[in-house]
Structures are given as structure tokens and as C-alpha cells.
Amino acid sequence: MAITEIIFWFLSALAVISAIMVVVSKSPVHSVLWLVTVFFAISGHYILLNAQFIAIVNIIVYAGAIMVLFLFVLMLMNLNKETEPQKNLWMKLTGVISGGCLLIILISLIRQATEIKGKIAITKTGDIGLIKVLGKELFSNYVVPFEISSVLFLSAMIGAVVIGKKD
Amino acid sequence: MPIQYYIVLALVLFCIGIIGVLIRRNAIIIFMCIELMLNAANLLLVAFSKMHNAAATATNSNVGIEGQLFVFFIMVVAAAEVSIGLAIIVMMFRNVHSIDVNFLNRLKN
Q1: How confident is the model at residue B2, as a pLDDT?
Q2: What angle do CA B21, B26, B32 make, to 5 degrees?
Q3: Does residue B73 belong to the interface with chain A, where contact is any CB pair within 8 Å?
Q4: Which of A20, A128, B27, B109 could serve as a FRET partner for B38 with CA atoms 20 to 30 Å apart?
Q5: Which residues does chain B have within 8 Å of residue A157's beta carbon, measured at their own beta carbons?
Q6: CATH fold for the domain made of B3-103
């Protein structure tokens, strides 16, 4: 088994197990830390696909900024696990069964699809994920959406301040 | 790696996110599961971008770069969404002193 496959299976198992732990862990702080693990595993997948810019941005934006924001809010609220509301067992079982049915249906669809049969996502090579190539594309063909996204950030910042303000 | 492996991995992560949204009542956990679903979609976009790049001819090597740019824009929108959503959750916690989503039915009548 090649080293690429070993890394792929390791990162996949890490991502799936950590994602399950996000859902089932009792303490919300533990959920946040498991979600950080998921994001690092997905960043490892990006590096394996040679999408270096996306991998770095994923670590900085998701694992760095967004998860710290979640942790701040959780620690401000000071939730303890005794007061954590739980759905009853039947509701949980219904949720798991319906999600599992969706997963089974989608996987059976993917198994039957003929367009993707034998297609390969190339790993370790290819330069479309490098910062230079992506930056040139971003600032030539996609410069208008890029600037509009800065306006989106400005409106999100103003909205967060207005919503979070007392009264 | 074959593209089916990436599709199945992204589907498993997405369905775990859906199950989390369905079975938890804590609003912050539900929000984190939505982030998990967004990341599954991102992983699938990057894998498809590399797949199209592999299938293209060698003369035009930038085929498939749109997938990675869309991942970048999805991250931008997700960051804005998280800031607004957490502000709403903080406001809700200040008003009702709980982040149980079952208390969110106050607009009903």
C-alpha cells in the first residue's frame, strides 16, 4: 500500500471519528475541540490534493478564527452539562435512522453513477492549488466577487455589532 | 485516489452533520454541525477540481481552478455567517438565559 493511501485512510478515519465525537460528546467545549480536529484532518486532505492555499486558509479561518469565536461564546455562557437539554430517546433514534437512510441512498446513487467511473482525483501533483495560480485567477477574472465579498464582511461586521449591542 | 472515495467521505461527513442537527437541542452544537456540512461540501469541491484538472489536456493547465475559488468564497460567506449567527445566539441567551432551540418558538403567537 502506497504512502498516499495510508495517509488518505488515516485522515479519513480521523475526520469521521472526530465528526461522530462532535455530535455525541456531552460537553460543548469538547465538541468544539473535536471539530477543530475535523478541520485539521480536512486540511490534511487538501494538502494531499496539493491544494495548499485552501489548506492554509482552512486552518487559519476555520480552526483559528471561527472555532476561537465558538469557544469564546461557549465560555461566556458558562454552560454545564447538567443543564444541557436532551431530546428523548425516540427523537434521537428517529434522527439517526433518517440520516442513515439519506446516507445509504446517496451512496447507492454514487455506486451506480457511470460518469465518475474510473475518474481519478490526482494527489501530490498539479499546480492549480498554489497561491500564485489562484491569486492570478482571483485578481483577474474574479476580482468583482472578491470586492463584493469585502462589502459582505463589512455588512456582517455592522450587523453583528448591532445585534450584539445591549438594547 | 479514485473520486468515489472522496465523494463517500464527504457524504459521510455531511450525513453526520445532518444527524447532529436532528438530534441535538443545543443551538451552538447545531451551528457547529452546519459548519461540518459546509466543510464536507468544500472537500468535495476541491476533489472535483483536481479530478477535472486531471481529465483536461496538458495545454490548458488551469482547468478546474474555479472549484478552489468557490471554496474560498464559501469560506468567506461562512465566516460572515458565523459572526452573525453567534451574535444572534448571544442575544437569545441574554433574553431567555438558555440556548435550547425549543425555546425559540416565541414568535409563534
Answers
A1: 85
A2: 55
A3: yes
A4: A128
A5: 83
A6: Helix Hairpins (1.10.287)
